[in-house]
Specification:
The complex is a heterodimer of chains A (516) and B (331). Chain A is of the alpha/beta class and 516 residues long. Chain A is built from 18 helices and 22 strands. Chain A folds into three domains: 194 residues, Rossmann fold, CATH 3.40.50.300; 164 residues, Rossmann fold; 76 residues, no CATH class. The N terminus and C terminus of chain A are likely disordered. The chains are: A alpha/beta (516), B mainly alpha (331).
């Protein structure tokens, strides 16, 4: 591993990270990660949600303290304790949400705290002249006296980069810089990145757009579940291999056995979508969900998996297509409509969108059922206790104490309590977004077992997961997504890791060659 | 562009209001009335000059009225009872005010408390201390007081630009320079834009916060000294509620209470509008002086509604891509 991650001899190492480890409670967010960035190198840092990318960035920029490991910048060990420390050392970060001041002019944003002055008075004209000249270097010819907020996100990004570089940053971390840019703006940004790399600045590029990674980057480092999967020269890494690094496990590791696949046409369709979609959000798709069947959604981060779930649950309003339940047309404009139809949704962000940490396990479990009954028909305390205890026993939630605040439980047990919340409403359809994210190995297997059990009880399940072998284990069908569209449906024996990977990577490398 | 729009709107309201008043009472349009308006509102203008810094930085200072009350009592006692020379008394009280403001700023920053609560506590504290010092109105008879009251620049038309009106104008000009032309001023706007981003850009947020509240308290102290010249007395109940008049003047002057935007000139216009309403009511003679408060209240509502409307308009118009013209892009 160490020789595969060593930088090529031509580029001196600028940022050198060895054995970086960081835990939050029992969860290892980073486990012995190495990362090397060379001078003038554009280096992609890739991985699905929860892979450890943002933790790595936050440790390097001083937001989190590391548990173990070394960070060396130009052969000097550094240990920044704040973003400002990191900036002083020469490491600047530009986030997707630009950290500048929208109410000030572009020029003030570039020179805040170091404006040219004479007798204490800011030399406005001189500052604007310098700002204009500075941005010309970056290919921007704009009125630097106008407020930053009046410009597009791309201009704001470039302003942030220009300020950082002008403050003598040597390492530039760009966190999803292209997520809200259009194609043309991306090109402007890439031009800037190439220029900076030519000047010897090292750039860490975090993105989930693989096309862009292949277009701009020299090397790529992939993380998964807090571990380093590998660092490669991008030119020698076929796209299928890259996706396998991000999603797949080694075939030898696959231990789960595939669920017995019955002919799925035998089951009755319970929810069906025709041409369902939303402009600029997700291309229209057809989807049939049957009782007692698990449909898996597979694809890379940003491919449209969570978007599908949010449309299905009404959290995002579809602007085309129709949905039916048991053959009857339905209205699906809000999560409230969805809950009324017997849909349940366990979102990916368990901490912010799922559990209410201060409330007890009992209160969290009865939440959805109570909401459905309405506030004027409260569940009696006896009913609540009964429901809570039933599901605690059934799902084996530990500790089995319904009065414990749910925030004190482990991730796996929180996830089970969330499942219980929706099961208590006896749903028709349950959508699980990354049900095993951030859960330790033991609980992981249990959740998978639960998913299978639920399916046997006649529930329709739609499950999103980045763990392909997990999806293969419990899914009767797998829908593969790419670039915000459903591109392929795999059934029966076709449901296997290699075919999913092939579908995700399909025609993209070809398109790459056509483009270049 | 938006900042200048709100100043323009305030200016239009002032001019239209003044013309309407002058149509009904032609005597209003004289240098005498205008000069008196400046004199009567000199202390308000000075406090508002400090408040504008606080509000642009995203904070608020509720203690200024109490600080004025405290200053008048302290100065009166120092000069009349303790035998301290007036100028030394002024210097002493300004140092006390500076320490008071610095303490509030430090508490706000270090404990990350809302400025509203901290300065509310400061308001009670300063008012309480002035009651402790004296509960009666203490007339000030020092020679400097009569000398300053007698000084005035005669204007054509019989108006007298008094010393305290001149003091206000000078302070406003200095504050305008400080806010609009220095790094300090730019940092004040930055703080109001985003505290977190300002800190990330390496601006010392703590010292800035302390200095801003210090400035507000010192200017409130100066306003208190001016107030003591105006009334020739020190009284612990003086300037009750002035903090709210000040905030009203700042908002009418086109400053957003959320921070990040505003100007000294707009605030000055806001002060003048309040003074104009008061003058009109005095001329009318039959109206209760409390109509000033009602008119101010109505104006406040109108201005806040106007600001929201303008902002919504600006938001809608900024949806179309705004002016980014990359050099190399010829597509």
């Amino acid at each position: 591993m160490s020789d595969s991650s060593a930088p090529p001899a031509t580029r001196p190492a600028l940022l050198d990270i060895r054995g970086l480890t960081k835990s939050f409670g029992a969860l290892k967010a980073l486990d012995d990660v190495d990362f090397t960035l060379g001078e003038g190198e554009i280096h992609a840092l890739l991985g699905e949600n929860g892979a450890g990318k943002s933790t790595l960035i936050k440790v390097v920029t001083g937001v989190f303290a590391r548990d173990a490991g070394t960070v060396r910048l130009a052969n000097r060990e550094i240990a920044p304790r704040s973003a400002k420390d990191a900036l002083d050392a020469g490491i600047a970060t530009v986030y997707q949400e630009v950290n500048l001041l929208p109410n000030l002019s572009v020029a003030q944003n570039l020179y805040l705290g170091r404006q040219p002055t004479r007798f204490g008075v800011v030399r406005e004209a001189e500052m604007k002249r310098r700002a204009h000249a500075l941005l010309l270097d970056y290919g921007l010819d704009i009125d630097v006296g106008a407020p930053l907020a009046s410009y597009s996100v791309a201009v704001q990004h470039i302003t942030a980069i220009a300020r950082a570089v002008d403050l003598s940053a040597r390492v530039l971390i760009l966190d999803e810089p292209t997520a809200s840019l259009d194609r043309h703006e991306v090109e402007i940004l890439f031009k800037v990145m190439r220029k900076l790399a030519a000047d010897g600045i090292g750039i860490v590029f975090v993105s989930h757009f693989l096309d862009q990674v292949y277009e701009i980057c020299d090397r790529v480092t992939v993380l998964r579940n807090g571990r380093l999967i590998g660092s490669r020269e991008i030119a020698q890494l076929p796209r299928l291999d890259l996706i396998r690094m991000m999603l797949g496990r080694e075939l030898a590791e696959t231990t789960h056995e595939r669920a017995a696949s019955q002919p799925d046409t035998a089951r009755e369709v319970c929810v069906s979508f025709k041409g369902f979609g939303k402009q600029g959000y997700l291309a229209p798709f057809d989807l049939e969900l049957r009782r007692g069947e698990v449909v898996g959604l597979a694809g890379l981060l940003g491919s449209g998996r969570t978007e599908t779930a949010r449309l299905v649950f009404g959290a995002e309003r579809a602007d085309s297509g129709a949905a039916t339940v048991d053959g009857k047309a339905i209205r699906l404009n809000s999560p409230r409509d969805a809950a009324g139809l017997g849909f349940g949704y366990c979102p990916e962000e368990r901490k912010t969108e799922g559990i209410v940490a201060e409330l007890t396990v009992r209160e969290n479990i009865v939440l959805a059922l109570q909401a459905r009954r309405g506030l004027h028909r409260p569940l009696s305390r006896r009913e609540q206790d009964e429901i809570a205890l039933r599901y605690i026993r059934m799902l084996d939630i530990r500790p089995p104490d319904p009065e414990r605040p749910i925030g004190l439980l482990s991730g796996g047990n929180q996830q089970k309590a969330l499942l219980a919340r929706w099961l208590a409403t006896s749903p028709k359809l349950l959508v699980l977004d990354e049900p095993t994210r951030g859960i330790d190995v033991g609980a992981h297997a249990e959740i998978i077992r639960l998913v299978r059990d639920l399916c046997e009880q006649g529930l329709a399940l739609l499950v999103i997961s980045s763990e392909l072998d997990e999806i293969v284990t419990y899914s009767n069908r797998v829908i593969v997504l790419r670039d915000r569209a459903h591109v392929e449906e795999l059934k029966g024996d076709a449901v296997e890791v290699s075919s999913i990977l092939a579908a995700i990577a399909a025609d993209a490398p070809a398109a790459q060659e056509v483009a270049s | 562009m938006k900042a200048s729009t709100s100043i323009a709107i305030t200016a239009v309201v002032l001019v239209v209001g003044f013309v309407l008043c002058a149509l009904q009472f032609p005597n209003i349009a004289s240098t005498r009335v205008v000069a008196n308006l400046l004199t009567d509102n000199a202390f308000l203008g000075i406090v508002a000059a400090g408040m504008i810094f606080v509000i642009i930085s995203g904070g608020i200072d509720l203690s200024v009225g109490s600080v004025i009350g405290f200053t008048t009592v302290f100065v009166a006692l120092a000069v009349e009872r303790w035998g301290i020379p007036p100028l030394a008394a002024f210097a002493l009280v300004l140092v006390l005010c500076a320490l008071f403001g610095a303490a509030m700023g430090a508490i706000i920053h270090v404990f990350d408390l809302p400025p509203f609560i901290v300065t509310l506590a400061g308001m009670f504290l300063a008012r309480g201390v002035s009651f402790l010092l004296s509960t009666e109105s203490i007339p000030i008879t020092a020679p400097i007081y009569s000398a300053v009251s007698d000084f005035a620049i005669r204007l054509p038309g019989g108006g007298r630009l008094t010393a305290i009106a001149i003091a206000m104008l000078v302070i406003l000009v200095v504050c305008a320079l400080l806010l609009h032309l220095t790094r300090f001023g730019a940092n004040v706007y930055a703080l109001g834009g985003s505290r977190a981003a300002t800190a990330l850009m390496g601006i010392p947020v703590g010292p800035m916060t302390i200095r801003i509240y210090m400035l507000s308290s010192v200017l409130a102290g100066l306003a208190g000294i001016v107030f003591s010249f105006y009334t020739a007395a020190g009284y612990s109940l003086s300037a009750v509620g002035v903090e709210l008049d000040t905030i009203a003047a700042v908002v009418i002057g086109g400053t957003l209470l959320t921070g990040g935007q505003g100007s000294v000139i707009g605030t000055f216009l806001g002060v003048l509008i309040q003074g104009m309403i008061q003058t009109y009511i005095n001329f009318d003679g039959t109206l209760s002086s409390w109509w000033t408060k009602i008119a101010t209240g109505v104006l406040l509502f109108v201005f806040i509604a106007l600001q929201q409307g303008l902002m919504a308009l600006a938001r809608r118009s900024s949806v179309k891509p705004a002016g980014a013209k990359p050099v190399g892009a010829s597509t």
